[in-house]
Design brief:
Layout lengths: L1 E6 L8 H17 L4 E6 L1 H5 L4 H4 L2 E4 L7 H15 L5 E4 L11 E5 L4 H4 L6 H17 L2 E4 L2 H11 L6 E3 L24 E5 L8 H9 L8 E5 L6 H10 L5 E5 L5 H6 L2 E4 L8 H8 L4 E4 L2 H7 L4 E3 L4 H13 L1 H12 L4 H16 L1
Parallel strand pairs: 1-2, 1-4, 2-3, 4-5, 5-6, 6-7, 8-9, 8-11, 9-10, 11-12, 12-13
Length: 361
């Protein structure tokens, strides 16, 4: 079976969880299903980056669109990609957007419906465009993959997609290297390091973490580090100054290698308002980092009993969760590692290949 991966969204190093998903799934498919012939359909930015995961296990076709300019991306999805995908048996679009026509069987990942559930977090033009394109692509796809039962219910309700066309395939998690990693030194001294890993998008609710930190007594207050694209901007710095915790906050921006930060972290925390799966929670758990996270149904699916829960709209619960999780670190560390064993990219790859076969039938 000839399977194409629609990577027109990809700007290497800048596309967050969608990039992680595509990378790990393609590697998993190559390992678990070597009988599949993989083709990566890429944009100009990815082609300019040279070799990468897209060329490790797949034949590469440059489509000629841009992943940065939204108009060019949309044109590539709607018109250029169907032509480039001729001869494929299955076209898998792993990042919400997909062509509306073409000869190949179409499999689409819709990771979440953020623009519907939290419209205030998405700029109006982007929200309207996303609604038109994703809704149309979802209704025309032969099969839809999403990462959680919560997200599947959202797709049924919001996009009116029949349940029998949706497959829930949980994300996997990459087990970190066995070699010891020197912990990062962020000048925290003997104080615990609390780590947030997220792009600074409105629904990630990063400012609420600063507000919660300010409610932890100064004598026991940890250092809070933000790692992710956009987290080194002035808004978070101003918030920390306003709350009187500027000396307790580290703004790291995009970080290429997170392993030293995980090695130094006494706690991973997220106050996200919405997720389709919650991969950062899983990535922390597999590394034995205790977790405090938003009490959302989708994160309950991922973390089970291996987290301390907080209300993302209430800074007081965030402050209490920090204190409680640091005090229960050993139990959370052990429970998280056990919980993470239930998720693997090998399992995700096998289940995804079954979706291809079902769609082709």
């Amino acid at each position: 079976m000839r399977v194409g991966f629609d990577l027109l969204f990809l700007v290497p190093g800048q596309t967050g969880g969608r990039e992680t998903y595509a990378r790990e799934l393609m590697r998993g498919l190559a390992a678990e299903r070597p009988d599949l012939e993989l083709t990566a359909l890429i944009n100009r930015e990815t082609a300019a980056a040279g070799a990468g995961f897209w060329s490790e296990t797949a034949h590469v076709i440059e489509v000629g669109s841009s992943g940065v300019a939204r108009g060019s991306w949309a044109l590539g999805e709607l018109w250029r990609l169907p032509r480039a995908a001729r001869g494929l048996d299955v076209l898998h679009s792993p990042a919400n957007f997909a062509p509306l026509h073409g000869g190949a069987v179409r499999v689409l990942n819709v990771h979440d419906v953020l623009w519907r559930r939290l419209p205030d977090t998405v700029p109006t033009a982007l929200r309207l465009g996303t609604n038109v394109l994703v809704t149309a692509a979802a209704r025309r796809a032969d099969r839809i993959i999403t990462g959680s039962h919560t997200a599947a219910a959202d797709l049924e309700q919001e996009l009116k997609v029949p349940a029998d066309r949706i497959s829930v395939v949980p994300n996997g998690v990459t087990v970190p290297p066995a070699a010891a990693v020197a912990p990062a030194d962020l000048g925290q001294g003997a104080r615990p390091l609390v780590l947030s890993v997220a792009t600074d998008l409105p629904h990630k609710n990063l400012a609420a973490l600063v507000d919660g930190l300010a409610l932890v007594p100064a004598a026991t207050r940890p250092v809070l580090a933000f790692a992710g694209h956009g987290t080194d901007t002035g808004a978070l710095r101003a918030r920390a100054l306003e709350r009187g915790v500027a000396d307790d906050v580290r703004l790291l921006g995009a970080v290429g290698d997170l392993e030293p930060l995980y090695a130094a972290a006494a706690l991973f925390i997220t106050a996200t308002r919405f997720e389709g799966f919650g991969l950062p929670v899983l990535e922390a758990m597999v590394r034995g980092v205790p977790v405090a996270c938003s009490d959302l149904p989708v994160l309950r699916e991922v973390a089970g009993d291996a987290a301390v829960w907080l209300d993302p709209g209430d800074p007081a619960t965030i402050g209490r969760a920090i204190t409680a999780a640091l005090g229960d670190a050993e139990r959370l560390r052990s429970a998280g590692r056990v919980r993470a064993q239930g998720f693997s990219w090998a399992a995700a790859a096998r289940a995804t290949a079954e979706v291809y076969e079902r769609a082709a039938r």
